[in-house]
Design a protein that fits this description.
mainly alpha; Growth Hormone, Chain: A; single chain; 468 residues; 19 helices; 2 domains
Length: 468
């Protein structure tokens, strides 16, 4: 008599857990890329809003997200990752609905702050839950897949955004409602809880506030410096406040018993190098994407639907290249793979500015080559940086380390958007627009070259060498 195989319950199946947790990651990443496409329409719907004002829809989210990632991740380690994940997912979903009904620009910014708090709770906990639920031998592969889902969201985001914004920019937030509800139900049924019993105290709350206000002041100075005057009192005050508060944050990290970022982590060469690379990479990524969207909508005067499809090929290449990178990682050192990715992305930015013209007469010749090359670069670099940053950290510090590397990425996103807004401003002619965009693409290429150089400090060992 043949005995039927009994399938394990959902909560013990790593692939089911990976699917559910990746869905939440997909939603958070989808939101970022959809909002980029809606940038111009949001500004147009709130009359009197400058490009600098609208930039806070992106920056307020990224700043608070960066500041809360580590504290909420450690809180989740203490009280339970699943509980924090579900709460973060619920807050993110609710805040998305509030963003959709925002009556004014600054109401929208406020609801984006709430949305960021939810994202900061669900992102590190989703990774922590995944690492705790899957066998040790599959963790690196699963983290790469989890990271690749963000790339898939990057591909889908511009297309969905273009289609939704054609009706109203408010729909770009409402799309999170069905995804969020589905993820909540699936996570409750599928994902097992986990916690770190060694965690007894929550990281420095005052330090998190210092980082939030300090990065916000830096972004304010960069965004408004062109209008206020780079030597004006307001601009200089913003930079001074940023320097003082970030410096205070660093001082507290050295002296607080439970700092937001443990300085000992940065004494690990791989981790320090990966964070510098990720900071620069995040700036290049957000800056490049915003430049392309603004160019298509303000210089070529393309519709949001056309813009969405035009932006999509680069991000669409990311998940495909990520799968290839996963195979290359078996025999190629992580540092070399990330360096090649950052260099390819920088080359994509240079190729874009070299080929792009004023009329958009040939998208395939002018914009597509740079888009595809940038997508290859992102697919090689981003998952490699995320999965390798904690490579040399002790096991009990890897959860915190993953939060810190994501914090570095978000701070980079803020800096990239701020620099682009400062460079582009509101051009009044094609000549001024072209000059501003050229400067922007050169700056982003330079930032990505710095990221590539930082990758030299990452591991020189391949996964295959480690196993032998």
């Amino acid at each position: 008599m043949t005995q039927l195989a009994v399938r394990p319950p959902l909560a013990t199946r790593p692939r089911a857990i990976l699917t559910v947790l990746s869905l939440a990651s997909f939603m958070a990443s989808l939101d970022l890329f959809i909002v980029n496409v809606a940038f111009d329409q949001i500004g147009a719907s709130f009359r009197g809003s400058s490009i600098g004002d609208v930039s806070w829809v992106l920056n307020a989210y990224a700043i608070l997200y960066a500041a809360l990632l580590v504290p909420l991740g450690r809180l989740a380690d203490k009280v339970g990752r699943k509980r924090t994940f579900l709460l973060g997912l619920a807050v993110f979903t609710l805040a998305s609905v509030l963003c959709a009904v925002a009556p004014g620009l600054w109401w929208l910014v406020a609801f984006r702050v709430l949305q960021a708090a939810g994202a900061a709770a669900l992102t590190p906990t989703s990774l922590g839950l995944l690492l705790a639920a899957v066998p040790a031998g599959k963790r690196l592969a699963y983290v790469r897949i989890w990271s690749a889902v963000a790339g898939l969201a990057a591909a889908a985001g511009p297309v969905f955004g273009g289609l939704l914004v054609a009706a109203s920019w408010r729909w770009v937030f409402l799309v999170n409602l069905p995804i969020g509800i589905l993820a909540l139900i699936a996570a409750q049924r599928t994902v097992p809880d986990s916690r770190d019993t060694a965690v007894s105290r929550i990281p420095d709350v005052v330090g998190s506030a210092l980082l939030t206000i300090g990065i916000g002041a830096l972004a304010l100075g960069i965004v408004e410096g062109g209008d206020w005057g780079w030597g004006s009192g307001r601009t200089l005050t913003s930079f001074l406040v940023a320097a003082l508060l970030v410096g205070w944050f660093v001082w507290r990290a050295e002296h607080h018993p439970v700092p937001v970022v443990d300085p000992a982590l940065y004494r690990v060469r791989t981790f320090a190098s990966a964070n510098v690379a990720m900071l620069m990479f995040g700036a290049g990524l957000s800056g490049y994407l915003l430049l392309v969207v603004l160019w298509l909508q303000n210089v070529w005067h393309w519709s949001t639907i056309t813009t969405g499809f035009a932006v999509a090929p680069g991000p669409a290449a990311v998940p495909v290249v990520t799968l290839i990178a996963q195979r290359l990682a078996q025999r190629t050192p992580a540092g070399r793979l990330a360096l090649i990715g950052c260099a390819a992305f920088a080359a994509g930015a240079v190729l874009t500015l070299a080929l792009v013209g004023p009329h958009g007469s040939s998208y395939a010749r002018e914009l597509l080559p740079g888009q595809l090359l940038s997508g290859i670069g992102i697919g090689l670099a981003l998952p490699t940086l995320l999965s390798s940053a904690t490579h040399d950290l002790p096991a009990h510090r890897r959860s915190t380390g993953s939060g810190v590397i994501n914090m570095a990425r978000q701070i980079g996103l803020v800096l990239g958007v701020s620099v682009v807004v400062a460079l582009v401003g509101t051009p009044h002619s094609y000549a001024s627009a072209h000059s501003a965009f050229v400067h922007g693409w050169w700056v982003m290429a330079g930032v990505l070259v710095v990221a590539a150089i930082a990758c030299l400090g990452m591991p020189i060992r391949s996964v295959r060498n480690e196993r032998n």
